[in-house]
Amino acid sequence: MTNLSGINLNNGSAVGSKREGMDSPSKDLALMPRYEAYKDSYSDYSGLIPCEWKLIPIRAIFEERNEKNTGPKTDHILSVTRDRGVIPYDEKGAIGNNKSEDIERYKLVYENDLVINKMNVVIGSLGLSKYFGALSQVYIVLRPKTKSFNIRYYAYLFHNEPFYKSLIRYCTGIMELRESLNKEQFKQLYLPFPTFEEQTLIANFLDMKTAQIDEAIAIKEQQISLLKERKQIIIQQVVTQGLDPNVPMKDSGVDWIGKIPAHWVLKKIKHVTSKIGSGVTPTGGGSTYLDDGIPLLRSQNIHFDRIDLTDVARISNKTHEGMSNSKVKKGDVLLNITGGSIGRCYYVDSSDEMNVNQHVCIVRPNKIIKTVFLNAVLASEIGQGQIWYFQQGGGREGLNFQALKNFYIALPPEAQQVEIAEYIDELEKEFYSAIQIQLMQIEKLKEYKTTLINSAVTGKIKITPEMVEQ
Asked: End of a domain among 161, 193, 225?
């Protein structure tokens, strides 16, 4: 079968001694020192804290910065996201609200200010600013009142998941994820107050450890990219050359396909399929969707390695029967033909009743071509290249059926298709397993990072100078 040995899945050497504890995070935490005695903090997010730590209200730690951007003093507009914290507005992409034309109404933010999105704080939209800039009135900007408070320690405390989720009790509004934080109640909230030296030790320790964890995660994400790239290279090879590396070759006559085995034939998709077409959005749109019913597959449900029913829309059986032309059958290949996910495809391996909307095309193979082989060709560089060519060439944001019908496929004899399909099936399983291992390890690292931050900022572990100097 496939040789994955060319991709090093054991990435310990890439991080070296700095990764100590990364492979057994729970053991790493268990071995860390503790304080001698603890007391109740009377808060859900921190529980017990060291006896020598004080508890003081936010209003005693921070003052709110309400300096307006009059002039304006800066045109560097900022935003805040859960995963990246404070970032330049231009980097956030097409998410959230649009910036105002009147930026003089915005608040100024300085480097090392703590910024909180009062509408999205319960999902973690807050962070420490590395920039001087301005942002909208929806944000709360905080700065320490005195030098007794290390802003980096409190940034870790605020971005600690148990802490920001606990703030829901201080929010009001009609939508759970868009409730506004009540500033006055928030300022009454008591926070742990270690000595400044301890705050600094904790912040330095977390800077070091979170950087190591992030590096380990990045390496594993790179391994996943390499695995996917390797899989595509292998599939590209087998759908254009077959399984015999020594097979005689001939020129296909099509530039982007190149040479193919001498006994293969070049066909257009319209000659190897019995149906190419998409569905529609039911009359009434989303209002017709049900909690239980027939799955209506949309572009977000179609991925290169699966059909994902996690967030699938569902329609009534009556609506399904009224859309009989776009009913899905086992063996169909489903292809996204519009939007940012154009080209994603996968085949149906279930006999369950399903339907598709207008953004998903049914490509139904006839007896000449095997489903797995057809899907592999469409997902390969050859298929994706033709999608790009026909989409760009027509200046369209989507792929029309006529263009799709004229796609070229290099077709082996049926017996070879079966062999190739079986090979690809095994290949998919092998790479899926390898990728899942990496994903599970990434998830464990993320969980460890969350637990480590919470343990450090609430005193469940005692950070010593030696731990920072490692």
From this structure: 193
Residue 437 and residue 451 share a domain: yes
How many structural domains are present in the chain?
3
45: which 2 tokens? 């997010």
The angle, 0 to 180 degrees and rounded to 10, between the axes of the packed helices 151-158 and 414-457 is: 130
Residue ranges making up the domain that contains 455: 1-41+196-242+414-470
Residue 144 CB-half CA count within 13 A: 15
**Are 107 and 66 within 8 A, CB to CB?**
yes
Q: What angle do CA 241, 245, 248 make, to 5 degrees?
A: 70
DSSP-derived secondary structure for 353-396 = --EE-TTEEEEEE-TTS-HHHHHHHHHSHHHHHHHHHHHHHTT-
Find all residues with CB under 8 Å of 347, minimum gap 6, and list them.
331, 332, 333, 334, 371, 372, 374, 375
Q: Read off the tokens for 97.
A: 């609200």
Which residues contact residue 290 at a Cβ distance below 8 angstroms, ignoring those fewer than 6 apart? 314, 315, 316
- Give the residue from 274, 272, 296, 277 showing the smallest Cα distance to 286: 296
- What letter represents residue 186's amino acid? F
Percent of the chain with pLDDT over 70: 90
Instruction: Give the span between the Cα atoms of 189 and 184, in whole angstroms.
Output: 9
* Angstrom distance (rounded) from CA 291 to CA 206: 44
Q: How many residues does the chain have?
A: 470
Question: pLDDT digits over 291-304, tens only?
Answer: 899 999 999 999 99
Helices marked H in 261-412: 317-322, 371-379, 381-393, 401-405
Q: Which residue type occupies 91?
A: E
State pLDDT tens for residues 75-87: 999 999 888 899 9
